[in-house]
Model the fold of this input.
Amino acid sequence: MRHKARHKGPVITMNWNTTLDVKTRVAVGAGARQKLSSILAQLGAGKRVLIVCQPSTAVHWLRDILDTLPGEDFQVTTLEVPDGEQCKTTEWLLRIWEHLEGRGFDRQDTIVALGGGAVLDLAGFACSTYLRGLNLVLIPTSLLAQVDASIGGKNAINLPTGKNLAGTFFFPRAVLADQEVLSTLPEKQITSGLAEIIKYAMIEETVAKSTDYEKGPKPLFELIEDMVKESVEWDDPTLAGLITNCIKMKLYVVHRDPHETGVRRCLNLGHTLGHAIEAQSEFELSHGEAVAIGLHHITKYSVSQKKLDKEALERVKEILMRAELPTDLPKGLTKERLIAQMNSDKKRSGDKVKLVVPQSKLGVVDFESSYPVTELAKLV
Ligand SMILES: NC(=O)c1ccc[n+]([C@@H]2O[C@H](COP(=O)([O-])OP(=O)(O)OC[C@H]3O[C@@H](n4cnc5c(N)ncnc54)[C@H](O)[C@@H]3O)[C@@H](O)[C@H]2O)c1
Done:
């Protein structure tokens, strides 16, 4: 299936120095995927290229990507991994390593991850560990992967005991965030990505204060409020602007704090409860749906602590509902289990837990305070 973008703006290319001595080229816009071969040439990459994809992305986009890699210049192989979260396993990690080993990949060669956040996480992990790192190029195909998972250099697979328990920090050499590939994305996944975009809007002021990120003339929150008055289509020009904006915001945050010791914690707004809901619902809710509930509940908590006014809470609820995201805990999840799950959060240290809490007005958060773990019960 091919779709043409109605609004084809220019592809914006940013050269990003990650502070960890890796330069990442980030191309954003309709048609960005066409830059793959020229970027590989600029990197001086070897001939061998492995494309890791899932059935959904293979059927819609693999041929298209293969067409951009001329046979005389590249030896391209592909590996299709199972859909969604099921690919983030040691079994599939091993299959990728074996694939690379069997075909004689060396450190100049490249892995291209074509898919949602799950494929990016798996391929990134495999790429960072094989020969201590090949070239990694990410082509994020879900909205959530474009605004979040493709940026920041975190990669992970799941272990039987929990999600993302084995992971690395490893930066891609290039990210090609192409809005056209969103044309085949199921509606539920567009909605899921919107939750992360709303999160960015809720931290915008604080990020602008703590990093070199510059706000536009209108707060992101207001832009999204206008956009969600109607159902959001993949080729909405406002969405295109928001994707670029969120990517920039995350790049600035990660540049300032690559290892999450300070401002990067802002990105976890709504995620402490969100992760617990995701795990307890056995991934029946998408990441974004769980985060949406987390955003609503942490805002409620802030209002109960008199740190934010009720009107802000109403706006958060309204924007989430208009984006067709859930705001309340799903039936069937017990509060005790959610609290127990939150207690095992990676951000816990002893009887304290770091929480990111909205403060004073929408766009501002406190990311520095620690709270007694007993406060977690007030989030549900
Ligand atoms: N590393 C990070 O910084 C980071 C950040 C956020 C999330 N994540 C991880 O990302 C994953 C969630 O990512 P996600 O929301 O993209 O989910 P996903 O990767 O599971 O993709 C969602 C679904 O959409 C399908 N899909 C993706 N692109 C498509 C397209 N263009 N057309 C048709 N179908 C398409 C996938 O096959 C899948 O069924 C989780 O594993 C999460 O842990 C990582």
Notes: The chain is about 40% helix and 15% strand. Residues 188-206+257-379 form a domain with the Dehydroquinate synthase-like, alpha domain fold (CATH 1.20.1090.10). The first helix runs from residue 36 to 43. The chain has two domains: 12-184, 188-206+257-379.
